[in-house]
Design brief:
This is Succinate-semialdehyde dehydrogenase [NADP+]. Keywords: NADP, Oxidoreductase. It comes from Streptomyces davaonensis (strain DSM 101723 / JCM 4913 / KCC S-0913 / 768). Its EC number is 1.2.1.79. This protein is α/β, with parallel strands linked by helices. The protein has two domains: about 5-235 and about 440-464, Aldehyde Dehydrogenase, Chain A, domain 1; about 240-430, 3-Layer(aba) Sandwich (Aldehyde Dehydrogenase, Chain A, domain 2). It has helices spanning about 20-40, 45-60, 60-75, 75-100, 140-150, 165-180, 195-200, 215-225, 250-260, 280-295, 315-330, 365, 380-390, 405-415, 445-450, and strands spanning about 5, 10-15, 115-125, 130-135, 155-160, 185-190, 205-210, 230-235, 240-245, 270-275, 330-335, 355, 375-380, 395, 400, 420, 435-440, 440, 455-464. Helix 9 links the parallel strand 9 (about 240-245) and strand 10. Helix 3 (about 60-75) packs antiparallel against helix 6 (about 165-180).
């Protein structure tokens, strides 16, 4: 895949970049290693000052970087501005909380005399240069939720971004540079996917984090495992959205639309499988389909647009194939179901689609639909709802709508996912740990759990 900005709204290639060669990559690895030696010793106050400055600059740049993101991957411009604002918020959160999150800890059992020590502490120390392999769907947020905690912990970052968002990738390096970070604290590597393994095998790179597809995650995890290096993976998701009879159906259906089509449906944590109790199935389906049909599909730069194009032509093809396979196998398209054909929208658009009558044999039951396509399931009771929800190789997040606390307890106990959102839609927040189970990956981002992922958790023992 070429390193290029290709506008998904019209397919026009706007800018192409040459991949960095071996000499430039080596220079940047040397710089990262050298910068880490000194940056690791900076005080939390100085790291916080730098990160807060980056947040201020990002706020100033919000409109411009939003337009870049929309041009590169097609998200509606309002959502792009919101993404930039969220990144600035996360930077300030880590600037304000990192010192406390990484403060020395005493063992829970304060009596350590039987160890021969007068005192034992746990200290969190940085690891070194961390390689981040990031996706295009949230081209700013995915990076910042790694970079903010990593930099506050005293690590330095090496970013290998998706090849279709090079301008956003370069902006991030420039942002941290303008904020005053030492050269080498955060660097963008304009390289292809084939160059990742060699960099990860380099002894100067101490760990890796990846957000992306399951095959990409397997590849990075395999190399990291072979090199005995820490890795964190956030992979795909096919999140269930369960609606029980006691739910507020109007609210559940309204939020369901947003939960499915956020970011043009290209979100790992988007609700994708809507599992509805039979007693309220028809009423929910009517409301949900009406909401999907009412969405405004159009130019992502237009303020009124709610659904823009998919980011790549291949992405649209993948969605089409999943829908076509389902309808050929007996599924019914309650809305959408075919490629959008409007002369004024020549890009990679796919309409909001709701499929009913899904069976286990259909590909869309097993695979992640990365576009504005929802699948509807009818569940006879809570037990069947849980079975359907867990009948997936993924386990990123989940959504449950019920006013029955006994049902809430059952779902929280039994759903195989990294998060359970009750009467609301999944959303990441800097204070909450984020990550999944099963083939959705391992490790956690955000919160105290996320900042400690790339720390050397060190026991400090003092003799009597």
């Amino acid at each position: 895949m070429p390193i290029a900005t290709v506008n998904p709204a019209n397919g026009e290639t706007l800018k192409t970049y040459e991949a960095m060669g071996a000499e430039e990559t080596e220079r940047r690895l040397q710089l990262a290693e050298a910068t880490f030696r000194t940056y690791r010793t900076t005080a939390f106050a100085e790291r916080a000052r730098l990160l807060n400055r980056a947040a201020d600059l990002l706020d100033e740049d919000q409109q411009d970087i939003a337009r870049v993101m929309t041009t590169e991957m097609g998200k509606p411009i309002r959502q792009a501005r919101a993404e930039a604002a969220k990144c600035a918020k996360a930077m300030r959160w880590y600037a304000g909380h990192a010192e406390q999150l990484l403060a020395d800890e005493e063992p829970a059992d304060a009596d350590v005399s039987d160890s021969g020590a007068s005192r034992v502490r746990v200290r969190y120390r940085p690891l070194g240069p961390v390689l981040a392999v990031m996706p295009w769907n949230f081209p700013l947020w995915q990076v910042v939720r790694f970079a903010a905690p990593a930099l506050m912990a005293g690590n330095v970052g090496l970013l290998k971004h998706a090849s279709n968002v090079p301008q956003t990738a370069l902006y991030l390096e420039d942002l941290f540079h303008r904020a005053g970070y030492p050269e080498g604290a955060f660097q963008t590597l304009l390289i292809g996917a084939g160059a990742v393994e060699e960099i990860l095998r380099d002894e100067r790179v101490k760990a890796a984090t990846l957000t992306g597809s399951e095959p990409a995650g397997r590849a990075v995890a395999s190399v990291a495992g072979d090199m005995v290096k820490k890795s964190v993976l956030e992979l795909g998701g096919s999140d269930p959205y369960v609606v029980m009879p006691s739910a507020d159906l109007d609210r559940a259906a309204q939020i369901a639309v947003t939960a499915r089509v956020q970011n043009n449906g290209q979100s790992c944590i988007a609700a994708k499988r809507f599992i509805v109790h039979t007693d309220v199935y028809d009423a929910f389906a009517e409301r949900f389909v009406a909401g999907m049909k009412a969405l405004t599909v159009g130019d992502p730069m237009a303020e009124e647009t709610e659904v823009g194009p998919l980011a790549t032509e291949q992405g649209r093809t993948d969605v089409e194939e999943l829908v076509d396979d389902a309808t050929r196998s007996g599924a019914t398209a309650l809305c959408g179901g075919h490629r959008l054909r409007r002369p004024e929208l020549p890009g990679w658009y796919y309409p909001p689609t709701v499929l009913a009558g899904i069976t286990r044999e259909m590909r869309i039951h097993r695979e992640e639909a990365f576009g504005p396509v929802a699948t509807l399931y009818r569940a006879g009771d809570l037990d069947e709802a849980v079975l359907i929800a867990n009948d997936t190789p993924f386990g990123l997040s989940s959504n449950v709508w019920t006013r029955d606390e006994t049902e809430v307890d059952r779902f929280v106990r039994d759903l195989e996912a990294g998060s359970v959102y009750v009467n609301g839609m999944t959303a990441s927040h800097p204070a909450f740990p984020f990550g999944g189970a099963k083939r959705s990956g391992y490790g956690r981002e955000l919160s105290g759990h996320g900042i400690r992922e790339f720390c050397n958790i060190t026991t400090v023992w003092h003799g009597a």
